Amino acid sequence: MSSVVRIFISSSGDVVEEREKARQVIAKLQRFYGDCVDLRPVLWEDLPLQADTSFQEGIDLVLHGKHQIDIAVFILWSRLGSPIGGTLRRADGSPYNSGTEREFDLMLAPREQTGGKRPHIFVYWRKDDAGFMKLVARHSVDKLSELANQRELLDSFIKHRFHDEQGRNIRAIHTYTKPASFARRLKV
């Protein structure tokens, strides 16, 4: 009997190619490990999310379900993600800026509760300013403020979650420049 390893992939909509690359890397690793381990990717688009909850509430149910997440992979580029509504709030009552931000907190909590044993959390940040400028050039003027706001939210998230007040690194964040280099970094 093989052990099951559940791998949660979290990202916003700007890294669709990387999400597919993550799925491919997991499939390739599954072929390598064969019957020794059962690698199960957990992506929101594959989940049976019900119509009586929001997307985020449905994802939360999976993350809090009886089957624990063993590995959480966060992929970031130009957006922090879509805002979430409803009653989903931080412990202090403030709203989350996105589902990605909430999912990061949801993965940190069990990691702290298990003394750093699970889930293993990996964050990959696409550092591609030229690609971002191409993205900006493809959008109409009325979308520019939304793009800038999302980039600011992402930059703030990285600044506050991965650096201390003096700007020193407190959490690891892996950088890459293109989706292909992300796949190489993920499988290492």
Give an overview in words:
The structure is a single chain. With 188 residues, this protein is an alpha/beta fold. Helices cover 44% and strands 16% of the residues. It contains 6 helices and 5 strands, in the order βαβαβαβααβα. Strands 2-1-3-4-5 form a 5-stranded parallel β-sheet, sandwiched between helices. Helix 3 (99-113) links the parallel strand 3 and strand 4. The radius of gyration is 17 Å and the shape is globular. The model has no long low-confidence stretch (mean pLDDT 92).
Task: Provide a brief overview of the structure.
Helices cover 44% and strands 16% of the residues.
The total of helices stands at 6
**What's the gyration radius in Å?**
17 Å
Element-by-element helix/strand order? EHEHEHEHHEH
How would you classify the helix and strand content by structural class?
A: alpha/beta
Mean pLDDT: 92
Number of strands: 5
Major sheet size, sense and barrel closure: 5 strands, parallel
Q: Looking across the biggest beta sheet, what order are the strands in?
A: 2-1-3-4-5
Measured by DSSP, the beta-strand proportion falls in: 15-25%
- Enumerate the spans where pLDDT stays under 50 for 5 or more consecutive residues: none
User: How many angstroms does the end-to-end distance come to?
Assistant: 26 Å
Write the layout of secondary structure elements.
Elements: E1 3-11, H1 16-33, E2 37-42, H2 55-63, E3 71-76, H3 99-113, E4 120-126, H4 129-137, H5 141-162, E5 174-176, H6 179-187
Parallel strand pairs: 1-2, 1-3, 3-4, 4-5
Helix pairs in contact: 1-6
